Predict the 3D structure of the following.
Amino acid sequence: MKFNNLQEFREALQNVAADKAYNTEEAYLNSGNIEDYFFKENLLAYKKFHIESSQSDNKDKVHLAFIFSFFEVIAGEHSENIGIHYTDMRSKNQTWILNRIALDIKYLPNKYDDITIYTWQSKQSSVGFYREFLVFNENNEAIIAARSFWSIMDLSSRTIIPSNEIVASQENPFILPVKTTNAKLKSIKASLPEDDNKISYKYLIGYSDLDANNHVNNTRYINMVINAVDFLNLGLDIESFEVNYTSELVKGDLVSIEASIVEETNEYYSLAVYIKFLDNLIESNKQEAHDSLKALVKLRK
């Protein structure tokens, strides 16, 4: 995590704002809330969230899937602010796809806590956009940092649309070159050892797992991963959490969920979790078994 508190984040924004390309007004440069300038210019968005009782677990901590849901909400609002509107995308039969995300977690907020989440685009590639998230508690301490990569999918062909068909990279005015973590968002290649520290079970995708695009929403995958980790009885004091979404799942898909310890030290456990497509019980689509999601989870002892 690159920032410990809101003040450090504001200092990073002031350094970026000093670049004449932003034509930052002097009043903003000298203000105590430089983020308002970037908010006004739609370069970032921020929003407060209250952790409800229904969003917390049996230890009064927020379920991680709700943090992902908050990310989805604020990312969607920011995308609309910069002109990539949900209604326009739906009319073109397009949708956002979260490909990869990595989180550094100091701690998960408690029930009834208020948090503020900041988000912005930090980079554009040929096939998508990098998006950062920073979560602050009520004392303006940074408690979660995340880096993610998103693409836009054509729902008819199920193919990724080149990003320059959405906005030319050299003309994208909404890139704010600030990173929240050192995560590279590379492909996860950890193998699952065959030993007594492995859990494996099957799960059938149903109605409650689906979103508006009729495939499993990214937040539902997180619940599957956390459940698998919990079955290993190592606790859920998460230090880092990294996910590769490799293929979509739909109603009727039967999957295998497997989790195993891949590394252990005196301070932490590192676990790999794989969700593998096995078959579809509603209709035969003649797919071979394959990975749908890979995750790496680091737990503090």
Observations:
- The chain is about 20% helix and 35% strand.
- Helices lie at 6-17, 26-29, 35-40, 64-81, 86-91, 218-231.
- The CA atoms of residues 56 and 63 lie 5 Å apart.
- The first strand starts at residue 45 and ends at 50.
